[in-house]
Structures are given as C-alpha cells and as structure tokens.
Amino acid sequence: MKRAVVLAALLAVGCSENSEIDVPRDIARKAPATDSYLRPLGAAVATGAAGDDDGYLRAFVAGFTSLTPENAMKWEVIHPELGEFDFEQADELVALARRTGKRVRGHPLVWDGQLPDWVTEGDWGPRELAAVLRRHVRAVVGRYRGRVEEWDVVNEPLAADGGWKQSVFFNVLGPKYVEIAFRAAHDADPDAHLFLNEIGTEHPGPKSEAVLRLAGELVRRGVPIHGVGYETHTTVLDFPRKRYLATQFATLASAGLGAAVTEMDVTIPPEGAPPQALALQARAYGEAARACAEAANCTGLTVWGVTDEYSWRGADQRPLAFDPDGRPKPAFAAIVQALARRR
Ligand code: G3I
Question: Quick check: CB of 247 below 6 Å from ligand 1?
C-alpha cells in the first residue's frame, strides 16, 4: 500500500518513476572517463534507438562523454498541454547520462520547432505568453538543476538574412523573449552554462554576423549568456574549415563567451558522392574537432546522432561517426585523434 501511495504522490507532482534505458554491465564498463578527451564529445540521443538498438547504445556509451536529448526536451514532448509536463523521456536520457558518466547538454528550452498546437494556435497576449515561457523554462531547468551542465536556451532565433525569425515567441514578445528565457534559466539554475544555438552559421554571411551581434548585445545588457552553439549541419562538399571556426570562437572569447559545435553531421550525397567520401567526411569532422580542441573557450563538440541508421538527415546520407551497425567510421577516428589528450 505504502509504495502505491508514494508513486501516486510522485506522479501528482509531475515526477514519474523513471522508466530506464537498460545498460547491460558489459556495455557500461566500456564508458570512457568524462575527461578522456580534451573537450566533451557529445552525441544527440533518441530514447527509442537507445532502448531498442544494442549497437547504437554500445557506440554511444563507449564513444562519447556527453549526451544531448535529440527530441525529449522539445515542447511537443515535455510540455504537451498547457501546464502539463511529461518528463519521462528526458528523465530516461538524463538517467542514462548519469549511469554512464556523461555530461548533459539540455536542448532546447525555447525553439519555434516541434511546438504543440496549444502554443502555435494560442491567441496570446505578451504578458500571458511571457508567463508561459518563464514557467516552462523554470520547470524544465529546475527539474534538472545540477544535472544539466549546459543548455541551449534559445534555439535558432534568426532568419537566413540575419534578421529575426518570425515565430510565435518573436511575434508576440519581440526580441525580449530571448532575454526572458535566459533570465528564467539562470534563476532556475545559476550554475548552468546558458547558450544561444544557431543553424547555418558555419560559413561567413549575414546570419553568422548576426549571431555574434546578438550575443554581444545580450552581454552588454547583462543577460546571463555564456556561449554560442554552432550547429554545423553540413556536407562533404562544403564543410567549414578550422580557420573559420577558430575566428568565430576567438571573437566570442573576446566577448568573454564560450563556443561549442552543437549538432554536427556531414552528409555524403547518395548519388555522385566525391571520391574518398568517407575520408573527406573524416576531414570535415577533424577540422571542427581541432578548432574546438585549440580554442580554450570551446566547451565541446556534439555529433547530431549516434549511428547513421537514425540520423534525421537519412541513413542513406551516411552523416554520422558510426555506421548503421554501430561500427566507428573514419570520421570517429578523426574526431578522437583531434580531441585525444597528449600523454
Ligand atoms: O514522435 C513522432 C512519432 O509519434 C511519429 O510516429 C513519427 C512519424 O511521423 O514522427 C515522430 O516525430 C518526429 C520527431 O523527430 C521525433 O522522432 C518528427 O516527425 C520529426 O520531424 C522530428 O525530426 C526532428 C527534427 O529536429 C524536427 O525539426 C529530428 O529528429 C531532430 O534530429 C531535429 O533536430 C533539430 C534540432 O533539435 C535543432 N537544430 C536542427 C535539427 C534538425 O532539424
């Protein structure tokens, strides 16, 4: 009887008893020490694949030292109805990280992607949406206080031309939504590192300039921001060189900010792939990994997925560091070589 009462109490306050992703002892033993690499080496992890695919789980546990929930912390999953939170998937992944000694990057607190209808179809006034935004950020960051080291607080706020992206948050609150989110996250966990995360900034252009301007403006306004994430979704045909990433990281360092490669994948076109495509892919990952290893303010490199099989870009694009069966590719060897600690 007592156990049922406790479980009911836990459920009532939104804490579900953790369903766990089972990590067999022989897999857990292969987990590298957190400081195995010069920088945290992360992967985006999907609950389904981690729970169902042994090769995926082995590759993740043995190869990486950081975990980013690929989808588990997005509003459509974690806040499906106004005021109703579902932490089950996020709890599973944060528990997996703790059991296997991984750092956690939380992702994303605020994004206009994968929002539930109650957000996108709401008839919001500024005060009301600001209150919903603050409550969401405080509830999610507060739950994982001390267990998530770095957060993507605001994800992809900019349009391709460097202007503001039209989203429900921007349209109702204006640019202020960014500051609201960062301050709420800092209130909920003052020790967490808070990042602005952006896509399409891995080459020179208006968006790359705009993300640096925005970050600098937030610093000037005393907003608690600690770094900028470069997603780096790229291809073997146009991947960023170390030199470019190094200049971006150095600019951020001069503003007292950190940097991270947060979602790297490097597609190989199924048709007409260049010769030595896997070696070229390895070079792409090596360039970014060396840029991070050589920049004191780079807080890590995360690959956006574990095995090619489950990549959002399609298995046929072969974008990740492990093949569909969880075997390491030349890309993984290039990353490890760049991030290896020189004994
Ligand atoms: O959960 C549903 C499932 O119930 C349904 O059966 C299935 C088939 O329709 O869809 C599932 O939802 C999918 C979701 O991933 C979870 O797997 C969505 O269709 C699919 O669109 C969604 O894709 C995610 C994508 O963001 C959405 O834009 C990718 O997995 C995820 O890797 C990707 O990640 C984003 C980062 O969070 C932010 N940066 C860009 C990056 C790529 O968009």
Answer: no
174 CA → ligand 1 middle, Å = 26
Residue 113 near ligand 1, beta carbon < 6 Å: yes
294 is catalytic: no
Nearest to 89 by CA among 74, 108, 102: 74
267 ligand 1 Cβ < 6 A: no
b/e per residue 135-162 (b: at least 16 CB within 10 A)? ebbbbbbebbeeebbbbbbbbbbbbeeb
Amino acid identity, position 187: D
Q: What is the pLDDT of residues 22-72, one digit of tens each?
A: 999 988 888 888 889 999 999 999 999 999 999 999 999 999 999 999 999
Q: What is the pTM of this model?
A: 0.94
Task: Give which of 251, 107, 96, 258 is closest to 193, Cα–Cα.
Answer: 258
- Going by the DSSP 8-state scheme, the letter that residue 216 receives in this structure is H
What percentage of the chain exceeds 90 in pLDDT? 90
CA angle 160, 162, 165 (to 5 degrees): 70
Of the candidates 70, 92, 156, 287, the residue annotated as catalytic is 156
Rounded Cα distance between 142 and 186, Å, is 10
156 an active-site residue? yes
